[in-house]
Amino acid sequence: MTIQEKLIKDIEEKGAIFLVLIDPDEFEKDDLIEFVDICSKNGVDALLVGGSLMVTGNLEKTLDIIKENCDLPRIIFPGGVSQVSSKADAILFISLISGRNGDQLIGQHVMAAPGILQSGIEPISTGYMLIESGKRTTAEYMSGTNPIPRNKPEIAAATALAAQYIGMKLIYLEAGSGADMSVPEEMIQKVSKFCKLPLIVGGGIRDPQTAAKKIKAGAKAIVVGNYFEDKSTWSEVKDFAMAIHENQSVKFV
Ligand code: 1GP
Q1: Which of 29, 73, 103, 240 has the highest CB neighbour count under 10 A?
Q2: Does ligand 1 come within 6 angstroms of the Cβ of 197?
Q3: Which pLDDT value is given to residue 249?
Q4: Is 115 touching ligand 1 by the criterion CB < 6 Å?
Q5: CATH for 38
Q6: Is residue 81 part of a domain?
Q7: Cα gap 130→139, rounded to integer Å
Q8: What pTM did the predictor assign?
Q9: Atom of ligand 1 at shortest distance to CA of 52?
Q10: Contacts of 96 (CB under 8 A, 6+ apart)
């Protein structure tokens, strides 16, 4: 079974899935060992690994530590073309479809594709949309693009539908790591009504209640990163998982 098939199967069984984002720049080895153990025992469905900057270049080391300490799928969430590694299980092959920067739509992909083939990891085609969330985010700045205005759900819905027609496999609505405001429920509702691809929502989600609201609106995967960079929050991993898995199961056709 591919990682994409496993994610879909988990969504169908649990209603929605819980993805934790690990930024290799933010974790010391001992903390990482402890944290991934907590994740694997408390309902996290897969780990995303990556970051917009990756200052320390610890991607491979981080992937190794995760593999040694838990069985969760490791999916690279790349901030750039250098973030490809055979030590992962899969990579979100992201096109920044909210923007009009050709390099982020296809240019980086051309450079990354041979390395992905060589690494043997599974690329998962993902339509990635930045959504306005208060302050300007790292992702907006680094990509040189404008986000979709948060009061324009119809633009997000049309963009997601276009990605579905193009043949992408997942949609990711992104408010940005540590965003002041998460993706609005109204937008999630509209996108999930128009587009039949599994919808990932992340950025600025800091409590299980907010995660549950996104699921109720139609999200099929919730990403939490920044909030778990403070050890004192790790006891809440289970609460997030329960809030996210609580809902009815679904079937993708
Ligand atoms: C960022 O969507 C992810 O790319 C997660 O966001 O770090 O704010 O949880 P947070």
Answers
A1: 240
A2: no
A3: 59
A4: no
A5: 3.20.20.390
A6: yes
A7: 8
A8: 0.96
A9: 4
A10: 104, 105, 128, 129, 130, 143, 145
